[in-house]
Amino acid sequence: HTSPPLFVSVSVSVSVCVLACVCVSERGETVFSATCQTGLVAKMSASEVEARQQEYAEILSEKERSLIELSERLEAITAELRGFAGDLHKKDLRIGVDGNDADRVEEGRVGMAARKVYIETPTSANDDGNSGGSSEKSKKKGKGKGKGKSGGGGKEGEGESGAGASTGKGKEGGEVGGERGEGSERESATSERGGVRSPSTPGGLSRASSLLRPSIYKHKPETRKDELEEAMTEDDLFSTLKSSQFDGVFNVSIFLFLFTLAYNLIRNVRQKGSRFDLSVLMCDSLLEDGLYAIYVGLSMATGCTVVFVTMWLMAKGYINTTVTTIIYVVFQIILIVWPIFLVSQSNLAPLIAMIVCATQIVYVLKLHSYFATNLYFNRVIKVQQKRNPSFSTSNPSAFPNSVTIGNFLYFLAAPTLVYETSYPRTQSIRWIYVLKKLGLMLACVLVQLTSFQQFMLPVLEHDTGSVLFDMMKLGLPSFIMWIAGFVCLFHCFLNITAEVLKFADRRFFEDWWNCTTIDGFWRKWNIPVHEWCLRHVYIDSMYYYNVNKMVATLGTFAFSAVFHELIFAVGFRVVRPWFFLGILGQIPLIYLGRRLKGKRRGNLLMWWTLFAGQPMLEVLYFRLWFDRHDDFFCIH
């Protein structure tokens, strides 16, 4: 619909430029002729010279009038073209996100709401700036975050930031709320991500690409390394951490930290004896609990095929979207209620029950992403078929060809929560790499078990009467246990899964340790969950329900708080809103802490909340458990 007007405007512009060149050329030739005849002036009489000058002056004035008239014509044509472009722009906003047939979905649903999603959605540039004294690596990596942005540590790339830069041009951190830059810079940064164009950008996605991934989602999977592996690949990790002016201070800090840990461990063992006991992991009840958890997990995975069959029937045209949605909602309710009921009726240990609940939540989130993405594709293809009954695509990765059992099972097993019709893949499996990660994972488990049994259990089992003193004693061991658990899950387990499945997008976390705000930490420490919330809570709520940015942000926090609380409620068999209130209670800290954005004090505040928050939750939940049970691992 834009081709004929575009051809006319280009033709008019070329014609005007030609006329201008002719006029300027004629004027130049006249002046040149006059210059060449200056040698004859000396031989002319005064009256002849005056007549010749008057003649030249009239010629020049005539040409000037012509140029003025031409300039006025150019201004008129420019005004007409601007008006025509504005009409096209408004039409594009009415018919779809990209101004393409492929995105004319549901009779102008997009409109200005979609523009709001594109332009107002915060970018995922690397947090808000790193704390003072950040490393050279974080400064070097921060240059790919777009213009008009402040902050350190970030992603590689050329002026791109956000939740899905195109392959090889940046990294996606998926952050909500890290928006920087102003005006057209924000719009440009948003329109570039993942090949998605904003409504103000001419052109858009092709029909085939619109069935590969929804254009409303910024995140696009790409081949990326693990954050820690990338740091150690580019430079030695310890060389990256330290500053050349303070090598000695860095070395003595590491020495004192390790000495303190060793001293506390040796003193605790000498005074109270060794409480480290691997036999607790081999008790009959814990093994039975593990087998029961495997049974529940496999049954949930098998039941998930109901959603696949439903989507396949919809893609083939056997059922409509209403029936598909009803079946999906019913199954999601069953998937949420049934495992919780099984755990509540059994006598599972808290650790096993929490693993079952976390697995259940993973399946719930994956199925919703699979359903929502394919439902979007189905709307697009229906609109296309109304306009062109013979419309179809032969791309095996495009909808509906992507709705296959192999594609679905790979998505269920892949270390991601957001569905794409295809993912970047590696060429081979590095089994030595897998073995190294397994060894590191085992070491992390031993560190966690030692910290928990030797330092934490004695404090949690017996109340000393001073909650503050108990929290201080739990601070260091619980922090070490959390760090070891983070490395075990995000750096080891997810990388092992990705390597075995040849899944190339390995960015499961970012440099959260450099964050200077609380919301920056939540955006970076768990990238899979953040990307899901960004796509299916934050963006979808604005795109489909026209909520504003503030409501979408609060909804994202509330959604995350509910599922965190659900894991603790199922694990400890008690309903208390402490974790939920703890997450929502960070919202005021987020707005207060933004005054410290990019400062060392902001980074210290982030570390303080982590160091103080975990012992508080442990005291609240574990004390309730030990009031009703004598053991944490082996429940009889």
Give an overview of the whole structure.
The termini are far apart. It contains 22 helices and no strands. Helices cover 65% and strands 0% of the residues. It has helices at 3-36, 46-95, 111-120, 136-141, 184-192, 207-210, 227-234, 237-241, 247-272, 284-303, 305-315, 321-345, 350-387, 405-413, 431-461, 467-500, 518-524, 527-545, 549-572, 578-584, 586-593, 600-628. Helix 11 packs parallel to helix 13 and helix 13 (350-387) packs antiparallel against helix 19. It is mainly alpha-helical.
SSE arrangement:
Elements: H1 3-36, H2 46-95, H3 111-120, H4 136-141, H5 184-192, H6 207-210, H7 227-234, H8 237-241, H9 247-272, H10 284-303, H11 305-315, H12 321-345, H13 350-387, H14 405-413, H15 431-461, H16 467-500, H17 518-524, H18 527-545, H19 549-572, H20 578-584, H21 586-593, H22 600-628
Helix pairs in contact: 1-2, 3-18, 10-13, 11-12, 11-13, 12-13, 13-19, 15-16, 16-22, 18-19, 19-20
Outline of the structure:
By secondary structure, this protein is an all-alpha fold.
